[in-house]
Sequence to fold (544 residues):
Amino acid sequence: MVPTMNESISYFIQQVINGLTVGSTYALIAIGYTMVYGIIGMINFAHGEIYMLGTYITFIVIAGLTLLGIESLPFILIAALIISMMVAGAYGFTIERVAYRPVRSSKRLIALISAIGMSIFLQNYMRLAQGSRDLAQQSIISGSWSLGTDEISVNLAYMQLIIFVITLICMVLLTLFISRSRVGRACRACSQDAGMTNLLGINTNHMIAATFVIGAMLAAVAGVLLGLYYGVVNPMIGFIAGLKAFTAAVLGGIGSIPGAVLGGLILGTAETMTGAYFSAQYKDVVAFSLLCLILLFRPSGLLGKPEVEKI
Amino acid sequence: MLLLEDIHTHYGAVHALKGVSLNVKKGEIVTLIGANGAGKSTLMMTICGDPQASQGRVIFQGEDITQKPTNKIMRNGLSVVPEGRHVFTGMTVEENLAMGAYFQSKEVKEQQEERVLNLFPRLKERFHQRAGTMSGGEQQMLAIGRGLMDEPELLLLDEPSLGLAPLIISQIFEIIQQLRETGTTIFLVEQNALKALAIADRGYVLEHGELVLQDTGQNLLANEDVKKAYLGG
Ligand SMILES: Nc1ncnc2c1ncn2[C@@H]1O[C@H](COP(=O)(O)OP(=O)(O)OP(=O)(O)O)[C@@H](O)[C@H]1O
Ligand SMILES: [Mg+2]
Fold:
């Protein structure tokens, strides 16, 4: 049966909503890549693993609280967010300390290998701790609103709205932190001219650590949100999501925070559209083709500054 | 106030400073002149611990700071305006100045900001402009202003006149003298030897990483060798 015009439009809008949902979480993860790159000029390849960690922690928190008989959804959500962010922050801090700081002044290749090593370590550590199979969690937040008129109507799941709202809050807080706070300003100074920041008496190591911690916290938020949205986790999800978010960061212009957000939203939408109109198997192909195209025609990404040259 | 004893500095195999000893007393303007590549900037940066001296001692206000990390050195009464300004181009004038007073209380910050803006009225007009879009002279003023935000006892200035129009250079030298009058000690590296020696109490001449002359500013101005090498005849 051929769908009517209105059905097609509804379907399209529905896919945009779904795409933006996934895209928001890519954006949250991509910010971590872009901030770390901005400040030390390196890609944190262990960043995707932090997202994976966030999802595991969410599952553990839900299981724990349910055992204790706590069933209030807002409480569970907030507890999962706070605990994942704290644990992920500690991991981000440690990753910088263990895998980056010791090799920061050596060749880039060495830092790259160190980061990949950290990523493999975290994957396998999770495999040992939690097993390598998929863990599934019944969705605790279900239900949706039906929006629109009789002709054109779409569904907005409660969980989708939660994802939009929390992502938006994170973005606003991050923007305020970066542009207004004293430490945020110092982080920016550090990414513009680390040597001079040091000459002003500011410990650049602290700023770099802060950047890793903030990036990790945002990735953990993404972990919580996608964990609740999809309801599955395994030790490898960080690898895929990390690759996607990294693509989003490059797409938007690595080093640019608005770029990371834009890249995440575009990538999430493009992927979802492909899944909806062609085949889900082509999702990844589209994501990476998009990356190739952008790199061919705009090597610095959509919002990247062409003159930025990091050593 | 500042004492350098037999300082040697290396960049890998390059031996940039070969046993430099000098001192700066409280309230003085001391200048260091020398040709390109003599090691002037290296000397200044060695005081800041970036790079660290490979031999010798740097003593600031009675404390041996030779081995201290740069960020610790720069927190106690020492400010530097490095060669090439190094303003934060993506930040506004206001933010750049705030970075200079990172560890100060809000009151001190406001008070210093007012002082700097009075010293450089041009910065007041540009207060919310991004530093990267300002002219070279304005950026130089900002770099000096940022250095002053921390109320330094000793201000290190590396070629503040580089690339500026004569009128602005005169202004900057006037401001350096004003700063001394308000109690800031100044160590000034300059290519513009004539102007630097004219305002300096004392001067040192650096050649190939070694000090070859030291005297009062007036005597160095009259010195035949200095005239020939640095004052154009
Ligand atoms: N980072 C570095 N690595 C290697 N060699 C360096 C480095 N910085 C300076 N040098 C070398 O050390 C010597 C002194 O340089 P320095 O910048 O101190 O000279 P300068 O007197 O400040 O010169 P100018 O008047 O041109 O600023 C030069 O021979 C220079 O090539
Ligand atoms: Mg120099």
Remarks:
- Chain A touches chain B through 17 residues (CB under 8 Å).
